[in-house]
Amino acid sequence: TVTFNAATSACEKGNRWTHALCSLLEMQRQNVKMDVISFNSSISACEKHGEWAIALQLFEDLQKEGVQYDVLTYSALISACEKGEQWIKALLLLAEMQQQNLQPNVITYNASLSACEKGQQWEHATA
Fold it and tell me: Are 42 and 20 in contact (CB under 8 A)?
């Protein structure tokens, strides 16, 4: 798991989002246990390239695998939605995160506010 996570993280940092996904798929193919780091790196890689729909699909996969997500997971998802101008999805994820008793951080709030700004939804940004 550690080796694959390192490779996935390197792909994310190197702007190789498709390679990050391939690494995740290879983990699955080889029956290597995926953890939150595996998914967070891949979600972050998608986020950096505006691939919000794939990031959301990865979140569904993470949940199906029974992997425990965290604040970083939601922050990356909300950032992906922000970059994809999906302000409604971003706010829904923020609400879901709080329902899961996860405390949003500065990154989470900034991405949510930016999503509202891009969608010209000022009333939601100040709520």
Answer: yes
